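Tutorial handout. Part one gives the primary structure; part two gives the three-dimensional structure as tokens.
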Amino acid sequence: MKYFVLLAACAVASALSAQVTYYTGTAGGYAVNEYDVTPLAPPQFGVPGGVAWDPSGSDVYYFDQDSAAIRRFDTNTNTPAATALYLVPNPGFLAYVDDMEFDEAVTTDLYFVESGGPYIYKLRRSGVDALDTSFGTGGVQTSSILGVYPYDLEFDPFSRLFVSGSNIGTSCGVWIVDQATLAVTPVVDLLTSAGSNSSGPVVFDAAGNMYCLLPPTFGSPTPMRVVRFSKALVDAAVASAGTSPLTVADGTMIIDGTANFPNGGRAALHTEFGKNILYFTANDGSVLRSDLATGAFTVFAQAAPPSGTDTNAPAAIAFQSGGDFRPFSGDNNQLCTFMYSTDTNFTVTGSSICFFNTTSAPASVNSLEITDAPTSVSNGSSFRFEIELRDASNALVTGDDGGVSVQVLSGSGTLGGTTFHASTYGAAVFDDLQLNGANGSVILRFSLVGSGVVVDSQVVTVTGGSGGSSGSKNDGSSGCTTGAGSGWLALLGLLATALVAARLRRVRSL
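Part two.
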């Protein structure tokens, strides 16, 4: 697999030699391309900011730290647009965009928040690189002072805009944004018992349930937690018009401190195989993924070690759409991340826009064969299947890492456990499958993702009780490497100037 890194001047559409490679590999079924957007005029202390996909096209908008501007990245030429969309003002020490989101219902409108500024901004475009100057002031609308410092913007599936933020320990939570006036109304108060005083990302699943990522209380090394608020609770809090905001106790702590969850500065949620999968950035820039039903996390893309004494860090993560992102699906949906490096003086030494896309199923696989299977299982007990990938001559295909998924083809019950595995040396091992609520017998179907190649199991009898019967083989495993937990990014100590301190943050702790 080849990964290409192009150096693109932030105002010049010309590709130069490669400078930075952040990802040397991904989970099976994905590929990554990286494009260098390193500032050309160091020293540069303003790190790159959030990214947002244009819902009316295929390009990405991002904060270009070299020119302190919101700029379009052309995904056809893989270069930044020559003309900036908007030059970002300096509400604090330096211009920096924490996050930006397009309104998919009004695709001309782009919202963003700035580091160190208690405002929400709304841009209205008249073209891909031009503002509608008849809107607001020169194409820009600015909110009144919010009283908090926004960190993350997120639309729910019903086109409602929410923002997370905090304010020096006196306020921390999630607010709903009036998209006409940019006024905010409290929805979740996170500065409560079992909460946090540090603002983190907020995401929504397809049903409208809200997930708040809770970084440690400022100065604490404890792991990140995730609390879930049902859509019904969120709707009730919104309807109360700020009089009855939710607290952490109202939600469900689906990932607590015992999971040793690495702290993620940015996050995006996506549905895969019917499950809510959280993608989030680790402090070293690696991209992790978690099935929120189990709380387990794996490494989706491992960040390469930094050069010399440099430090790598992530700045943004965003999906192009809600389309298919299953491994080996071959779909056009993409995940975009923004990575950067700083030296010991906190000068930005490199930055890249990185695009992850799914690969197609291996063409050499002609059939699947079940080589290990139980004849009977017990409700709620784990059991094992092993699937081999075979070519047209029925030989084992050891050189492909195709992904295999499993579902219930016939019979009752809910299938749990890990229902997708990338193959290793031609075999996909499912060793933690469970059937719950099943009765009588079932037939399972195993599918090579991204192809029409399937194989069905024999009838498997399901019994009550706690014991289960499984096949005889017990070697092998597959899937992504399990990520090691990490504590909150250690405080950098006293920086030489407040100028630098304002720029270096993973999750705002004000």
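Part three, for discussion. The mean pLDDT is 81. The longest helix spans residues 231-239.
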